[in-house]
Write a structure and sequence with these properties.
By secondary structure, the protein is α/β, with parallel strands linked by helices. The protein folds into two domains: 16-49; 62-188, Glutaredoxin, CATH 3.40.30. The protein has helices spanning 21-49, 68-71, 96-112, 147-152, 179-188; strands at residues 62-65, 78-81, 86-91, 118-121, 140-142, 159-163, 169-174. The strands form two sheets. It has a five-stranded mixed beta sheet. It has a two-stranded antiparallel sheet with strand order 1-2. Strand 3, helix 3 and strand 4 form a beta-alpha-beta unit. The chain is globular and about 65 Å long.
Length: 202
């Protein structure tokens, strides 16, 4: 948008203009107009940022557990179906933001209890279980063929997907979240302090 300042001196130059109450009224009107534009942009941006899968059902996901209790003496893997309500966190071994987000989850679990989310590790990297905090190691899966990445449309990590008890995707968050935000979303999907233990270590 271009503001027409009228003929005469360029912006900032000497020119006659409204004074006193008229000038204040003009400035107030301009501020209100600009504020409305910013609010409209923010609303449009928030709608555009909503991922298409939010509100839809999550397809069945089989998780190849890499937890110590499931992997046995080496390459053996136990397989579990993801059972909502709950969350899946898609990470990369080498991502520092992913490690920081897992520490937030670990602290939250220490405070509120409950079973951890499923941590899904991206393919193409050697898996290092030491990057997973101890409280989260009961539910760790390796996405060997990137199948889960395709289901979750994982393009940035960490990616957290929250699924309610009806298997609908209630929220999808790319990047880091605070413990308070995670707790709010877990409560919203009905993931209480003692969710399903399917796939947990003994």
């Amino acid at each position: 948008m271009t503001l027409d300042l009228g003929p005469g001196a360029p912006f900032g130059g000497p020119r006659a203009g409204p004074s006193g109450p008229r000038r204040l009224a003009a400035l107030a009107a301009l501020a209100a107009f600009c504020g409305l534009g910013v609010l409209t942009w923010l609303r449009v941006g928030a709608v555009a940022a909503r991922h298409p899968m939010v509100g839809l059902g999550l397809p069945e996901i089989e998780l190849a557990s890499a937890a110590p209790c499931a992997s046995g003496a080496g390459d053996a893997r136990s397989r579990f179906a993801f059972e909502p309500p709950g969350a899946l966190i898609y990470i990369s071994n080498s991502c520092p933001h992913c490690r920081a987000q897992l520490r937030v989850w670990s602290g939250l679990l220490a405070d509120r209890g409950g079973a951890p989310p499923w941590v899904v590790v991206a393919p193409g990297e050697s898996f290092d279980s030491t990057v997973i905090p101890a409280r989260l190691r009961r539910r760790v899966a390796l996405d060997h063929d990137a199948r889960i990445a395709r289901v979750l449309d994982a393009r940035r990590v960490p990616l957290t997907v929250y699924v309610d008890r009806h298997r609908r995707v209630a929220a999808r968050a790319e990047g880091r979240q605070s413990g308070a935000e995670i707790a709010r979303l877990l409560s919203a999907i009905g993931a209480g302090p003692t969710p399903s233990r399917t796939g947990d270590c003994p």
